[in-house]
Amino acid sequence: MTPDRRSFLAGSLAALGLGAAGCTPTATSTKGSTMPESPGPSAHPSAGPGARPGNPMAVSTYSFWRYREDAKTSIDECIAMAADMGFDAVEILEVQMERKDNAYLQQLKRQALAAGLDLCGMSTHQGFVSPDADVRRKNVEKTVASIELAYALGIPTIRVNTGRWGTSKDFDALMANRGIEPPLPGYTDDDAFPWVIACLEAVLPAAERCGVVLGLENHWGLGRTAEGVLRIVEAVNSPWLRVTLDTGNFLENPYDQLARIAPKAAFVQAKTYYGGGTWYTLDLDYDRIAAILRKVGYRGYVSLEFEGKEDPRTAIPKSLALLRRAFAW
Question: Is residue 38 a part of any domain in this protein?
Answer without folding.
Answer: no
